[in-house]
Design a protein that fits this description.
The chain is an alpha/beta fold. The protein has 3 domains: 204 residues, Alpha-D-Glucose-1,6-Bisphosphate, subunit A, domain 3 (Alpha-D-Glucose-1,6-Bisphosphate, Chain A, domain 3, 3-Layer(aba) Sandwich); 232 residues, Alpha-D-Glucose-1,6-Bisphosphate, subunit A, domain 3 (Alpha-D-Glucose-1,6-Bisphosphate, Chain A, domain 3); 127 residues, TATA-Binding Protein. Helix content is 33%, strand content 23%. It contains 18 helices and 27 strands. The strands form 6 sheets. An 8-stranded mixed β-sheet has the order 1-9-10-5-4-6-7-3, sandwiched between helices. The chain has a 6-stranded antiparallel β-sheet with strand order 21-24-25-26-20-27. The longest helix is centred in the last third of the chain and has 21 residues. The N and C termini lie far apart (50 Å). The structure holds 6-O-phosphono-alpha-D-glucopyranose and zinc ion. The site of 6-O-phosphono-alpha-D-glucopyranose has 14 residues, from loops.
Length: 571
């Protein structure tokens, strides 16, 4: 214990409000230089405290997490000082400021499980997820509540209201920066105006998370499988915060050779990469796995996580598993995953995620929920045990173990399925074998997403106006066609979310969906989701989707209205 007996003074600083601190789907994301403006971070953090009631945090605990991106360390020290001055009793921060988003969720939940459910008010997560990092790139901040999940919209709106009119914030200088490199408990003594001692614990980034995973998976069994001579796995940390977790779990615990872990050192600029695990940005892994050009010697299993380690991409040898298929297959094979073996209550997917999951839940006779995009919409369903598993097309998969999606967890689910399917096999049952068997049983939801990034806002508006005008045209075009502007009523608290995207659906369930991204940091991004169901699993994806893609383009006039001949990214 590092002790201090002095009483720390508090300064109340006059500040000017910023008008642009409205959080998107997952917190406030802006360029680092925006965050470095005078008092920008301080205003936002003080607004979090202003949005809570004092008894929620006074003398209580707060977790500060970070994905290691540029400014993570500076911001962590600032937030510790604001927390002290606002009366927080105990700040928990990961070593080097690092805690993945799912590990932060686990951390908050563990503190409350051990100390009473109102002990930890929640967490401040310093991440812009999969957005690039570095001095000229993105930084981000979001608040997670005491359940470990992202704050709901009414709360983030409240923060925004405070940011627009904030005049003062409280800070305590505490002397030196906290040494984030060393795991230690610091008792900093009293802070002016409060009776309690202010403490900071620099904790292992991985321990609590690993302890949780041990209750979900059978690591001995996984180790035995992973060491099969005919099985080789690789993992790409993309220089994000999954690295330390991968090194512990895959290398130390499961025995995967160190050379098979790529880019697992956390870098503030993610090595100039775009830490988003998809076919475009994880190009090296995609090449190693022979996804676009079959390779005889490709590894049998490959995976990657994004900057804050909540997203995942799963690949087999020469084989890409779409995220929509991934959640469907994990659900269908729940009996292969130790912590789900005894049964699952239901499952959920975001609206643009393919209906592959629905075919599984139907067969299992369990409910499926279709939620708007954004992990927070799963929170109530998870809290009330209405679902055990959930997933999104945007490379997110998770369960009730935390209140965030979880990249490393998803990898362990896949390894558990592989281990189970390979019990006693002479020849390896591969990822592709598992997916093909799934398609043979359930049919296949062919799927693609077109992203038009960084459009002029006015052009994006025109596209959605045009779509609105085409809804009735589409509906009369063919028997059973429907076109709706998706809205969602939360089955637990009855809150309503409107305007969550346009769904143009054919009688057989095939569809195209348009929605505006909620995570971009500049301009507008339109996403088109194409989906075609077929009993024949052997079609070429582009061929299967051709006519739907053409209809989506003609309905929206996106090329004409934006001047973009083709999408920025197709996944
Ligand atoms: C974040 C959220 C996800 C969501 C995704 C959508 O990653 O955590 O839950 O699916 O954003 O991003 P978009 O850019 O499509 O709004
Ligand atoms: Zn993320």
């Amino acid at each position: 214990m590092v002790e201090s007996t002095q009483s720390h003074k508090i300064t109340i600083v006059d500040t000017q409000a910023y008008q642009d601190q409205k959080a998107g789907t997952s917190g406030l994301r802006k360029k680092v230089k925006v965050f470095r403006q005078e008092n920008y971070l301080e205003n936002f953090v003080q607004s979090i405290f202003l949005s809570l009631s004092e008894e929620e945090y006074k003398g209580k605990a707060l977790v500060i997490a970070g994905d290691g991106r540029f400014y993570n360390d500076v911001a962590t020290q600032i937030i510790i000082r604001l927390a002290a001055a606002n009366g927080v009793g105990h700040v928990y921060v990961g070593q080097h400021g690092l805690l993945s988003t799912p590990a932060a969720s686990a951390f908050i939940r563990k503190l409350n499980a051990d100390n009473g459910e109102n002990y930890c008010v929640g967490g401040v997560l310093l991440t812009a997820s999969h957005n690039p990092g570095g001095e000229d790139e993105d930084f981000g901040i979001k608040f997670n509540s005491k359940s470990g999940g992202p704050a709901l919209e009414n709360f983030t709106n409240l923060i925004y209201e405070h940011t627009k009119k904030i005049q003062q914030y409280r800070i305590s200088h505490l002397g030196n920066d906290i040494d984030l490199a060393t795991i230690a408990d610091h008792n900093l003594g009293k802070v002016e105006g409060f009776d309690h001692d202010f403490r900071v614990t620099v904790a292992s980034s991985t321990d609590i998370y690993y302890d949780l995973l041990k209750t979900l998976f059978d690591f001995d069994d996984l180790k035995a499988f992973v060491s099969r001579p005919d099985f080789r796995m690789v993992f790409d940390g993309m220089h994000g915060v999954s690295g330390p977790y991968a090194q512990l779990l895959f290398q130390e615990v499961l025995g995967v050779p160190q050379d098979n872990l790529f880019r697992c050192n956390v870098l503030p600029d993610f090595g100039h990469g775009h830490p988003d695990p998809n076919l475009t940005y994880a190009a090296d892994l995609v090449k190693t796995m022979g996804i676009f050009d079959n390779k005889e010697d490709a590894p049998d299993f490959g995976a990657a996580c994004d900057g804050d380690a909540d997203r995942n991409m799963v690949l087999g040898k020469n084989f890409f598993v779409t995220p929509s298929d991934s959640i469907a297959i994990i659900t269908a094979n729940y009996k292969s995953i130790p912590f789900l073996k005894s049964g699952i209550s239901g499952a959920a997917r975001s609206m643009p995620t393919s209906g592959a999951l629905d075919r599984v839940t139907e067969k299992l006779g369990i409910p499926v929920y279709e939620t708007p995009t954004g992990w927070k919409f799963f929170g109530n369903l998870l809290d009330n045990n209405m679902i055990s598993l959930c997933g999104e097309e945007s490379f997110g998969t998770g369960s009730f173990h935390v209140r965030e999606k979880d990249g490393v967890w998803a990898v362990l689910c896949w390894l558990s399925i592989l281990a189970d399917k390979n019990r006693g096999t002479e020849q390896l049952v591969s990822v592709a074998d598992i997916v093909r068997a799934h398609w043979n049983e359930y049919g296949r939801n062919y799927y693609q997403r077109y992203d038009y990034e960084n459009l002029e806002n006015a052009d994006a508006d025109k596209v959605f106006k045009q779509l609105e005008s085409q809804m009735s045209v589409f509906e009369t075009e063919s028997e059973g066609n429907t076109a709706v502007n998706f809205s969602y009523t939360d089955p637990v608290d009855q809150s309503v979310s409107l305007n969550q995207g346009y769904i143009f659906k054919y009688a057989d369930g095939s569809r195209f969906v348009f929605r505006l991204s909620g995570t971009g940091s500049s301009g507008a991004t339109i996403r088109i989701y194409l989906e075609k169901y077929s009993n024949d699993p052997s079609l070429v994806v582009e061929e299967a989707l051709k006519s739907i893609a053409e209809r989506a383009l003609s309905a929206s006039q996106i090329q004409q209205l934006t001047g973009r001949e083709r999408p920025t990214v197709i996944t």
